[in-house]
Design goal:
The chain has twelve helices and eight strands. Helix 8 links the parallel strand 6 and strand 7. It has 302 residues and is α/β, with parallel strands linked by helices. It is globular and about 45 Å long. Belongs to the HMG-CoA lyase family.
């Protein structure tokens, strides 16, 4: 029985980056800025606003610098961005992001597809980014993709996940986000993986990043909560997917996660009405229904 639920949870909004990166329709810079400004007023304390990746790889986020410079910064909100290399870091620092997020995969094939480098060759690249970020006075976060399964290799050995995680922490990251990139995880697997990782890392240094491809994201979050994890990435409306994980759907929807947590008496500091308004805004801009159940219910209820 799950009984060890926390009294409060931190939701980190990744929609402007992870949500929009896979969209075919380009969302204008003006609309991205407007959406992020709306998110800043919902009570969110952390928003991942863009990615400083080469535009030829992620054309949807080609306006990263303009977006980062154009938003209204609200005191107390951390505005972060994904940074793949030294060139991306220079742009991120120019745009004055608060935090630099680095990323890599636990599986070799996905890392090659995503970063175009082996895991071994990725380590020194990220080490330079993390160290230079810290020198510039920015906090640093790490993402590990394919923790619970790889679209090319299947199940990923937990020892590979541990090795990548340890190496990222040694570089100096402050928090590690564990990604279920293809939405393959199940609650028992989450329990097994967290048992192994929590023997090595404190719970307050770990976050979970679930995609909802098979409808198990909220169930996986419940297990994570019970095991002491209190930080979760989510994407408003359920926007998202991974360009290098065919068939992966969006992240767990921020609005659905908030509904569940509110119903359980777990505080988040988020305003549900403002979140739903921002969710409807971005749904209108992408021009298609988003997978969030909360949005669907609101649609039915007018």
């Amino acid at each position: 029985m799950l009984t060890n639920f926390p009294t409060s949870v931190t939701i980190k909004e990744v929609g402007p980056r992870d949500g929009l990166q896979n969209e075919q329709a380009f969302i204008s810079t003006e609309n991205k800025i407007s959406w992020i400004n709306q998110l800043s007023l919902t009570g969110l304390k952390y928003i991942e606003i863009t990615s400083f990746v080469n535009p030829k790889w992620i054309p949807a986020l080609a306006d990263a610098v303009e977006v980062a410079k154009g938003i209204e910064r609200i005191p107390g909100v951390t505005y972060t961005a994904l940074v793949p290399n030294r060139k991306g870091l220079e742009q991120a620092l120019e745009a004055n992001v608060d935090e630099v997020a680095v990323f890599m995969s636990a599986s070799e094939t996905h890392n090659q597809k995503n970063i175009n480098k082996s895991i071994e060759n990725t380590f020194p690249l990220l080490k330079e980014v993390v160290e230079d970020s810290l020198k510039a006075g920015k906090s640093s976060r790490g993402y590990v993709s394919t923790v619970f399964g790889c679209p090319y290799e299947g199940i990923v050995d937990i020892e590979k996940v541990i090795r990548v995680s340890e190496t990222l922490f040694e570089m100096g990251i402050g928090e590690l986000s564990l990604g279920d990139t293809i939405g393959a995880a199940n609650p028992k697997q989450v329990q097994d993986v967290l048992e192994a990782l929590l023997r090595r890392f404190p719970a307050n240094k770990l976050a979970l990043h679930f995609h909802d491809t098979r409808g198990t994201a909220l169930a996986n979050i419940l297990v994570s909560l019970d095991m002491g994890i209190t930080t979760f990435d989510a994407s408003l409306g359920g926007l998202g997917g991974c360009p290098y994980a065919p068939g992966a759907s969006g992240n767990v929807a921020t609005d659905d996660l908030l509904y569940m947590l509110n119903s359980m008496g777990i505080t988040t500091g988020l305003n549900q009405e403002k979140l739903m308004s921002a969710s409807r805004f971005i749904q209108d801009k992408v021009g298609k229904p988003l997978p969030s159940r909360s949005l669907q219910v609101c649609g039915l209820n007018g």
